[in-house]
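pasting for the record
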Amino acid sequence: MESTVEVAVAAVGSELKTWETVRAFALGLPEAVEEFPWGESVAKVRRKVFVFLGVDDGSHQPGITVKLADEEAHAHALTMPGAEPAGYGLGRAGWVHIPLGKRGGPPPELLCEWVEDSYRTIAPKRLVAGLDARPGADPGTGGPAEA
């Protein structure tokens, strides 16, 4: 039987792995760069933030904040455990904070979808068109084409 400490360590490891997966995905998008305003990691495209990644030093619970313009995606994100409209008035503009590692929380694949949705909302149209032109991409979503 696992101890409470072992379970907690495994959960933190899982949160960090998810955070690293989402960060790598975000930084793999066209012209994405990482910067550290306010002491936290953000991914930007053309000087505009498309995902707040927070800090990975253990001082705060890992989480991401994305802008979801699609009403369905926005509503779905807010159903996740611990999710809430982003602070500082950003929630009114469609930004949602999703904590990582909550039981019943979104898998990394869904988080990456939301990161891409946020990127598509913030990035210039030319860069978004480049996502749609990727080999095997489904035009309109940029994701894998369905068979």
